[in-house]
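Contributing new records

If you add data, match the layout below exactly. Sequence lines come first and carry their own label; structure lines follow with theirs. Keep one chain per record. Anything else will be rejected by the validation script.
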Amino acid sequence: MFLGITRQVETAMKLTTARLKVCAAYAFAATVATLSAINAAFADEGGVSFWLPGIYGSLAAVPQQQPGWAFATFNYFASVSASGDVARAREIEVGKFPVSLMGSVNLNLHSTVDIQAFVPSYAFATPVFGGQATVGLMALYGGNRTSVAGTLNGTVTGPGGTVIPFMRSDSITDSVTGFGDLYPQFSLRWNAGVNNYMVYMTGDIPVGAYDSTRLANIGIGHGAFDAGAGYTYFNPQSGHEFSGVLGFTANMINPATQYQNGVDMHFDWGASQFLSKQVSVGLVGYVYREIGCDNGSGDRVGCFQSQVASVGPQISFLFPVGNMQGYLNFKGYGEFDAKDRASGWNAWVTFSLSPAAPAAAPSPPSIVTKAPPRS
């Protein structure tokens, strides 16, 4: 936005896009909000995390401009690869790797994920602690195709301690299409001029397509709880915007594998410049790091702390849809500095609808009276 735009337009611009983020949904995000866990994100157990980095971005902490129902949907496409310990961990997880093997491992893993998320939410009119309370639920549907190929060379320990030479070539491909887990979300947002603040909580209800013996999954097979806080600076006069959301994930044990991921830390950010009332461009990024060690009787790979960082471009559009406010965002991430986690690139297309700001009330017509005649 720029100087000279009316206050009504400024309010509409800065508040409309909040619902495109899901927390965890999340923003889910969620969106995702927070939400999210797609089994090819890779971190923690077999390199797979509950949190989907990038679920939050620009305007994450800005309240919805009007209370009521809102809806967001996004498509997430990712292509990631890994070798070494990550590929070995995935073979161990699905029972394809001889745990007692001593020797060399030359394995490569590749995965592609194409997921559509659906996030209805409701913003309450009554303030909670002075902020706007919002509840939502994220559901996923899509596909995951994962393959591992390579060779294993060395020795394995047999019955009685007998050492046996071992060599094997593997080429395993798995795919699945179905529904993912469910991600309930709750958030509070406050606005104070150009400053906006947010706290959120989300979790994982493990009801999605998951099989511990399968390479590719949509669900993660265990519950999780995630909470965090965010901040958005948005100046309607200059059009400058910056947002950041920091959160932490506590993972429950996977009952199918008796494996429990450590505590995860994640930071999603976005920066944008409004070129007009309807269009903004900018950058997005995230940093993800597991700060606790994996554990459980099913942990056969050790601490296995994963991390990854990313940055990429974004462009957004605001437009009316009937009596609602529409928002369309395109963004992409290129990952780097990955450890114990598959990495590559991912692309997002997000569309959201939220209640539009009420039109300004027209000024009442002036009343003209005729002066009485003079006597």
